[in-house]
Amino acid sequence: MRINRSGTSMNNSTETGTPLKRTDYCGELRAAHEGREVVLCGWVHKTRDMGHIVFVDLRDREGLAQVVFQSDRPELAEEAKRLRNEFVVGVRGRVRRRSAVNKDIPTGEVEVEAFELRVFAASKVPPFVVADPPQASEELRLKYRYLDLRRPKMQRHIRLRHEASLAVRNYMSRNGFFEIETPILANPTPEGARDYLVPSRIYKGRFYALPQSPQQFKQTLMISGFDRYFQIVRCFRDEDLRADRQPEFTQIDIETSFIDREEFFTLNEGLMEALFALAGGKVERPFRRLPYAEAMEKYGSDKPDLRVPLEMRDLTAVGGESSSEILKATIAGGGELKCLLVPGAGALSRGQLDKLGDKAKALGAKGLVWIKKQDGWKSSLKMADADFEMIWAALGGADTDLALLVADKRDTALKALGEIRRAWPMEDAARKDRLEFCWVTDFPLFEWNKEEKRFVSMHHPFTSPHEDDLGLLETEPDKVRAKAYDLVLNGVEVGGGSIRIHDMDLQRRVFKSLGLTDKETEEKFGYFLEALSFGAPPHGGIAFGFDRLVMLLAGEESIREVIPFPKTTSALDLMTNSPSAVTERQLEELGLKLRG
RNA sequence: GGGGUCGUAGUUCAGCUGGUUAGAACGCCGGCCUGUCACGCCGGAGGUCGCGAGUUCGAGUCUCGUCGGCCCCGCCA
Predict the structure, then answer these.
(1) Strand B nucleotides below 7 A of a protein CB?
(2) Closest nucleotide to A97: CA versus each C1'
């Protein structure tokens, strides 16, 4: 029987006619299987042809097993010699102990002595070798994703994803939550991200939108009395991509009624504990609570990485009393002086300090001032020794420390030093492996949008304002705090949510503050406002980025590593070539016409 | 929308200030080998240097454009 690499299927080599029915997964064979006759099915991972003896590593989703073809069955050995990588085969044989154990693989104590071989399918030479780590660009991996997914690591990731979704469903169900589906064809929304639009054939000129999240539906479910809802659900946002952002992504969406914030946090902390148990991670509870204002002031970020043991300090008062004209002028002009004290970093070279300065400038700061106390004061800023003494005393710095200062507009200074803080190398490996969760709370309800020249919701328009700030809604909207919270893990925003508005009148006031006209409000949210008037329970919820969570569980730095078929950063699917053109007829049916 | 970076055998890369025949490793093909597991040894094939213009006596190398990968800013309620 000829074996070729055309990719077409071939006949069975031994022509026994009996079907080869798999008895075991390759990766599950152990010493306990010794003596058993087994049938394995899988892909040829590698062959080692020694002349009169041929070794074949056979791979399936559970792992590798070594199959041996010996010369006492010459015909079989001849067949085995023609096997090539990625052929799909079935093997009948007997499990026996190896003469030399391979400690690198779990099945390394045993091997299978083959007495029947069937080639189910040949394979062309693959464009890259299916092995870890991949010796292929991400571009090639994405084009041949079906081959990339055969790699043991990708198989582990996809399995981990399954286990994570199972853990979520078990945990939520155990806590009384129902998984309830919501529409994928929904309404476009005036707020938030760009929508993916779906034209309606029946109503020409009208569009569905793919949901950015099931927000209104899940709140509606609360009004319907379902009380505890969750869903592992696909969401769509037509915005630019990143390592942690895909146009379609998966959320763990949760909503509850009649529960206060603390109870809700506890529930979610338990969910995180259940998830990270999958990776053997230890989760310390309760999680730290960090008001937004404090997070910005200390870490220059609303998603601080708390593994980095550095905090920022405000030195505006001290800087104002210094003799430095630059500092005094900046502060007099409404700027602030922020400082990051880095213990033990006084030995940093001039070149390293310049690089930090470049980084600060790239983030919009006018410059970075560094101060160290080694053989007298050294600094990028000329000041009197008394000024240095004053700053050092305010910081409580040691002789070996390094102080990094930015005097600028408050936001700019915090952002620049916050970014330097975030990127500070973690020499301590144990610290790097820690799981530093924190709840960032009390976000502002609104933020100013420069392009649209109006306030927009920082979270979303259904977020409840803090009751103490209700009076500011119309007068000083930027001062209103929201009952919104994010869950942050090691500098990654893994989830965000809020206590919702359940009062129709308050909801109307918020829409008004956002600059929505009565007409827009009625059109887009009319049904929802009416629903709120039929007895809406107090409720709130959260949505977690499932891809990001699985990414962190897998120890990866891109969600593409845990999504079976991801898109590139320019939103292409390199395997299917989507998106693609449609026929004129399709457009016509939808009442659409392409513009030149 | 903007910035950075990369694109050279099937793959990962090297290729100096522009200069004769574009290299290595892995993979692939053929041969040898009875205990390999990064098998080994011998031999071989394999290139539109992403694509298109331009500069030049001469372009993988320089310039511009374009397509694509990755990273970042904006954006992402």
Answers:
(1) 1, 10-13, 26-29, 32-40, 68-77
(2) B35
Phi, psi of A245 (to 5 degrees): -140, 125
Q: Closest nucleotide (CA of A572 to C1')?
A: B68
Q: How far apart are CA A465 and CA A502, in angstroms?
A: 11
Report which of A340, A294, A342 is spatially closest to residue A315, judged by C-alpha positions.
Answer: A340
ipTM: 0.93
Q: Which residues of chain A have pLDDT under 50?
A: 1-2, 7-15
Please, are residues A337 and A318 in contact by the beta-carbon 8 Å criterion?
A: yes
Question: How do A454-457 and A110-121 pair as beta strands?
Answer: unpaired
> Looking at the DSSP assignment, which residues form a beta bridge with residue A448?
A455
- Strand, coil or helix: A580: coil
What sign does the CA torsion over A178, A184, A186, A190 have?
A: positive
So what's the pLDDT on residue A13? 46
- Tokens 């007997």 locate to A94
pLDDT of residue A7: 46
Of A503, A493, A461, nearest in space to A480 by CA = A461
Q: Gap from A140 CA to B29 C1', in Å?
A: 24
pLDDT at res. A12: 47
Nucleotide B20 C1' to residue A338 CA (A): 63
Q: Which residue is nearest to nucleotide B72 (CA to C1')?
A: A242
Residue type, A329: A
Distance A263 CA to B64 C1' (A): 62
